[in-house]
Amino acid sequence: MNGTSGICRMQKYCAAPQCQTSVYFSTTAGQLLALTKQVDIVEWQQVIEAYCKSKPSETTQLHCSMKGYLTPDATMTACGALAETITTMAFAITTGPVSSCSRCLSTGTASCTTVNSNTAYCICYTGWQV
Q1: Which of 23, 32, 41, 90 shows its CA 20 to 30 Å from the CA of 72?
Q2: Domain residue spans in the chain?
Q3: Straight-line distance from the first to the last Cα atom of the chain, in angstroms, rounded to the nearest whole number
Q4: What string of H, E and C letters represents the secondary structure of the chain?
Q5: What is the spatial distance between Cα 25 and Cα 33, in angstroms, rounded to a whole number?
Q6: Radius of gyration of the chain (CA)
């Protein structure tokens, strides 16, 4: 395509990305993991350690990615096998009625309950809200 160019972006003021632990731990990660040492901001490429709340002897390393979020996802850690158990134990919030389960956003939705042909309720994962 002629006349087309890509735009490469950097963080504000060309600063290296930072990861906020509060964002990571506000999701399922907060139910599964805890930090071994309290840290609020993790610098890009820095590694921190977390442990499984249900089994403190199990630890995992979290990395601050170039995109500014901690990886891996909590469900992909040593604690991940416990994620399904925890989310099925505590579905937190149910949305108001929607026309069908296809109207539920896949991100954050644990399940959907169909009441009749044109009424359903999206059930959010714990830590997610409507």
Answers
A1: 90
A2: 12-83, 90-130
A3: 42
A4: CCCCCCCCCCCHHHCCCEEEHHHHCCCCHHHHEEECCCCCEEECCCEEEEEECCCCCCEEEEEECCCCCEECCHHHCCCHHHHHHHHHHCCCCECCCECCHHHCCCCCEEEEEEEECCEEEEEECCCCCC
A5: 8
A6: 19
Q: What is the pLDDT of residues 40-91, one digit of tens each?
A: 999 988 999 999 888 888 888 999 988 888 888 887 777 765 544 444 444 4
Residue that has been written with the tokens 């901001």 in this structure: 41
Q: Which CATH code, of 1.10.10, 2.60.40, 2.10.70, 3.40.390, is assigned to 12-83?
A: 2.10.70
**Polymer length of the chain:** 130
pTM of the model: 0.54
Residue closest to 75 by CA, chosen among 67, 86, 89, 66: 86
Angle, CA of 19, 105 and 82, to the nearest 5°:
60
Give the whole-angstrom CA distance, residue 49 versus residue 56.
12
